[in-house]
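Loading example: each entry is read as two labelled lines plus one structure line.
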Amino acid sequence: MAEITYLEAIRQGLWEEMERDERVFILGEDVGAYGGAFKVTDGFLKRFGESRVIDTPISEAAIVGAAAGAAHMGLRPVAEMQFIDFISCAYDMLTNYVATARYRAGLATPIVVRGPCGGFVRGGPFHSQNPEAAFFHTPGLKIVAPATARDAKGLIKAAIRDDDPVLYLEHKWLYRRIKESLPEGEEILTPIGRARVAREGRDLSIVTYGAMVWKSLEAAEQLDKDGVSVEVLDLRTLLPLDDAAIVATVKKTNKLLIVHEDTRTGGLAGEIAARINEQAFEWLDGPIMRVTAHDVPLPYAPTLEDFVLPQTEDVVKAARWLAAY
Amino acid sequence: MTSRIVPATQPGHPAIPAEVERSQLLEIYYYLRLTRTLEERLTALYRQTKVIGGLFRSLGQEGESVASAYALERGRHRDLLSPLIRNLGSMLVMGATPLQILRQYMAKVEGPTRGRELNIHFNDLELGYVGQISHLGDMIPVMAGITLTFKLRREPRVGLVYIGDGGTSTGTFHEGLNFAAVQRCPLVVIGEYNHWAYSTPPAKQFAVTHLAEKAQGYGIPTVTVDGNDVLAVYAAAKHAVERARRGKGVHFIEVKTYRRKGHAEHDDQHYVPEDELERWAKENDPIDRYAKQLIENEWVEAAELTAMDQRIRDEVDRATDACVDEPLPAPETALGGVYADPADTEKLWFRLL
């Protein structure tokens, strides 16, 4: 049992899939000689060569489009966005071409588009984004967002093996902050579409994902001392949502707080709340509440960024309010 | 002050006569040295963790930045440029101050974006610069629109925009360039061939030899110049700017230069071939070359430059002292300015508990 970081877990997952399946290849900006801006693909060029680790021009639309074409022909491309903020440059390719290909034309497009998302790193408005909501609205895509090292590894492997296009959102704040001992020699695969109970509780449920899983667990720990028992559900997959797991936790605690780092308006929390209204309204003992980022572009100054983003203390206060409802 | 004509001196390129006054030679030197000195100060502040985000150096590229911007008409509501992260020199030429730059990098409340944006991502439409966003290529169509406005209003104004060798791979670069060409916008595009897009060399970025070939495909006249020959860049830019001002449309200037630092300060440049950095530093530094040219041609005295170096160090010291201990913006100011109306974005419910 070696302790590895979240980043190393992604690396290992990619590496194992490339060893296992010669159809898997990587393309992206600076992924080869440099090993990726965050070093996720460090050493891959040496091991797998230039035909499977392709340094591309700065052309996100071409990266995703070329991945799609290769996927149609039977390969398993993993495209890296240097920062996930640049996925917007491939928005047309992903939403119009890739997402519709199976339904519209019967074309399988098993690509993975992965990249570092999220704030708390003083990256400013163009190196901190959480783009899931822009793609959540697009039938045909899958979206995963691991919070733990185990799931970082299990989901990258599952995403590569999935027969549909998967956006893999890795949180850069977790890269070297999260460590976990993973068993060696055992294959780790996290099923896509399945949430995970990160902490059991009785009084209230927090449904969350990504870096906010850790903030929510911190909050749950503090609330426990006040005698409030909080259950934390880590969604892991955002599209498709694991309705069964969300409904189950609501039926258990009867109160739901949804926490995400993305901005509020049009964020995933709205959809989750609507589904609970439809599927478990009678089980609720209080309003469904949200803790999210404020509806502004993410600013650079630490004082401003910390204000805009949801913090552990916000989750504590919101949960305490809801528990007392 | 005597006027004199200083020819571009780089062998192998057509000499474009550039009429430069002695005072202008010194002013160009001032901006070159100011750029480098200010960036060296930023590096020191970065190491003290006072610069909070990344730090991007233009070491080796100061010449083309300053010289190209210097060809514009400056002043309120005159020409306008859009810089990239390695065009600090262009910003300074247009009137951005060391104090603004230092505050912006340190996210100070008094900075030009009040802590919202990083490095040189900021604007002054009156003085004539509009900051880039991180998505490369986007400023080409934006500058097409700005210069289209000059044309529609029949104003004798010119725009100038920078794009790196890597940035020319983006779709927006091509779409914007084509748009500007079709509309005959008064726009000068500086293609900076600095050999590295992060870690990616030109051979993995494009299959042409010169960036200029890309612009030629859109019917745009081009010139390729030695980007580390300050006066050659100035002459080429002056020609293109005046041509654009006469209504002749877009001009593309490719400057061959070299990025001597990493993409950002954290980048150890292990991918750069051995000796290459040293060779460029030793043999082809734009400021060294320019200073040598000024002195050897007896256009200025060495002592004048030395005195100016000291004046610039003092200026940067004063600017640093003036802002280094200033506060960061107050948290709640993050909510202002998303829209004109409403002026403030709603504070979320859990912050009212």
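Chain A has twelve helices and 14 strands.
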